[in-house]
User: What shape does this take?
Amino acid sequence: GDPEQVRAFLADAMLRRALLLRLIGDLEAAGESLLEALQFNLDDGLALFWYGKVLIEQGRHKEAPGFLQTSIQHHEATRPYAHALLGALIMTWPEPDLDAALRHLREALRLQP
Assistant: This one.
């Protein structure tokens, strides 16, 4: 088939593999698989969301916000969850920006009443 279809298929396969790895508790391999999926499409909002979530689960809190923020721009279905995660994550920072955290939490509620 067409190279673009092959790339989309491979990206989807890497995403599905990552989610399975995450379910069995292999967060490191899940993260690697998500990065592989993102190599096919840097704007894959679903892969960006899950990578941000896996980073949080790995305790890599400083790396997660950029991926979650970018996922908000590229994947509508996970947008409320990304906002909720960002709001909660910001509140855990040593010097939290409570206004930013509240904005994200309010936006999550607005998008998912």
Observations:
- The radius of gyration is 15 Å.
- The chain has a mean pLDDT of 95.
- The first helix runs from residue 3 to 23.
